[in-house]
Amino acid sequence: MLAVNLKQLREQKGLSQNQLAKLANVPQSAIHYIENGERNPGLQTVEKLADGLGVTLSKLVESKESQ
């Protein structure tokens, strides 16, 4: 669910992958790989992405069934 949530939240906020990368202080390529399900990030990266998006960690990783 992380890949789907990340992309949806990023797009809802009108951010490009590059803009989010700058806000979260992570490489743009990492966001690309995560959104495409090609890589599983570590907890520190997920925390940075949540901070960059201005959402809680649980919001970023929650499954759609729990919404």
Automatic annotation (TrEMBL):
Taxonomic source organism: Desulforamulus reducens (strain ATCC BAA-1160 / DSM 100696 / MI-1) (Desulfotomaculum reducens)
Protein name: Transcriptional regulator, XRE family
InterPro entries named in the record: Cro/C1-type_HTH, Lambda_DNA-bd_dom_sf, TransReg_Diox_bact_type
Lineage: Bacteria, Bacillati, Bacillota, Clostridia, Eubacteriales
Superkingdom to which the source organism belongs: Bacteria
UniProt keyword Cytoplasm, yes or no: no
Domain HTH cro/C1-type, residue spans: 6-60
PROSITE patterns: HTH_CROC1
SMART domains for this protein: HTH_XRE
Tagged with keyword RNA-binding: no
UniProt keyword terms in alphabetical order: DNA-binding, Transcription, Transcription regulation
SUPFAM superfamilies registered for this protein in UniProt: lambda repressor-like DNA-binding domains
Membrane-spanning parts: none
Pfam families (UniProt xref): HTH_3
GO molecular function: DNA binding; DNA-binding transcription factor activity
Entry GO terms, CC: cytosol
